[in-house]
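>> received
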Amino acid sequence: MAQAPRLDFETFVARKKAERAGGGAETTGHEYTYTFDRQSRVAFENTRAVAMAVEASVRLFKQMGAHQLLGQAVKVGERQFPRIHALAKQSCDTLQIAMPQVFVVSSPHLNAQTLGTNDDSFIVVHSGLVDEYSDEELLTVIGHECGHIHNSHVAYLTALHYLTYMAGMFLPWILQPALVALRGWSRRAEITCDRAGMLVARNQAASERAITKLAVGSRKLYEEFDLDAFLDQHREGNQGIGKYMEVFATHPWLPKRVLAMRTFGESALFQKALGKPAAGLTMSEVDGRVAALLKGDS
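>> returned
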C-alpha cells in the first residue's frame, strides 16, 4: 500500500521564516501589502493544522492539479491569446516577479484564481472575464492575481481551494480549524491584491469597474449600474446579524473592497505610482482606516 507523503512541518516553518515578512523571498516593493495580511501569515507559522494543510495541498496540486490544467485549459503564450499574455507580462514587470503560467478555462463566470506553489504558480482566467472586460479592467484582475504571487500567497490559496472542496465531501468538522484560519487570512489577502491590481493598472476608475462588474455579471446591466447606490449597500449590510455571515467568506463583501480601494487611492504611495507628487495618506493611515472598515468580519 502506498504511503502518504510526509508532512515536514519544521522545513515548512524554516522556509517561511526565511522569506521577507512583506512577501516573497528578498524582493522589494511590498510597501502596499496590507499589514493584517502579513500578520496573519506570520501567525500561520505557529498553527500546525494550517501548515500541515498547506504542505498536503501543495503536494496534491503538484501530483494532480497542474496536469488537470494542462489537459482541460488553454495555455497562454505569445502565439496563444497574445492580448492576455501581454497583460500578464505587464503585470509581472510592474511587480517585478517572474512570469507564471497563465491558462484560460471555458466558463461564463467572471472569475480568476491563482494556484500552485510559491515557486511554481498558475493563473487561471475564466473566458467570461475576457469577454466582458476591457484591457484596463482585465489588467487589474491579472495584476491582482500577480499580487498573490508577489506576496507569497499561492500555497495558502491552494490549501484553501482543496480544503473547501474536501469539506463538502466528508468530515468538514475536522477541517474547520484550518478553513476558518485560512478564510480569515484570505479576506485580508484580497485587500493586498486589490491594491496590487490598482498599482498595475494605474487607473482607479478601471480598477473599481473590474471589482463592481463581479457583482453585476452583465455588460448590458452594467450600463445602468449606479456605483454610489451600490456603496450605500455597505451601510445597509452593517445592520443586523447578517453582517456576521462574512466570517464564512473568502473575500470581503464587494462594497467594502471598493471602499478599501478608494482609501488606498488616497495614499501617497498610489499617487506616486501615478507619477503625481507623493502627497496623501501614509500606508499606516490607510491600513488603520481599512481595518476599521473591515471590523466585524473576523
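>> Residues 244 and 296 are 7 Å apart (CA to CA).
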